[in-house]
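Quick start: what a row looks like.
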Amino acid sequence: MIVKRGKRYVLKSKESGRTLGVHPSREAAERQETAINMSKARAAGHKLPPPPDERGETMRRIRSGKAKFAVPFLLALGLAHGARAATLTCPAGYLTAPGGQTTTGPSANTVVARSAPALVFQLQGAGTSTSAQVEICCSPFTCGAAAVWAPVQGGSVTLSGGNLNAAVSVLDPTCMYRVMVTACTSCSLNVAYACSGAH
């Protein structure tokens, strides 16, 4: 259900009363509500048409001058990233490429956790020496540049021999996230992510 609070529209769960999202317009809250209902229907086995081309619609609104809140959309769609990276959304997936990451550098993908109270990363792999750091970028047009990514406090994990299995959680996630592998000797690292309370 959607409740107006001041100038904001709050989407709340009918079952638990928990806040699922806060939006600047009723239209935006209705879009999230529709997406949640469609996701639940798909999970229940119902066949639904694919979601609309949000990127195309956003660009049409920007060109027509109707997009008042373009920055969050651009963040979510990852327009600042190169072709090799994909910007993923919750509830779950992998930031690393299939087969895991075997070199130093940023994860193949990034994630935006919209309307989720928490975001968790699980790092699994093996190697002689592996170190990784969860990073955040809030600059929508320059997240492709290494200098704008900042380490998340408490988001560093290190392995010295044996298997790596570590988790990093972020409460009230905002902006865009990735994992930077800073050391990789004979390593293979998989990074899974998941959001809690996204539906």
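That is the whole record. Residues 7 and 93 are 34 Å apart (CA to CA). The helical segments are 26-43, 54-64, 70-77.
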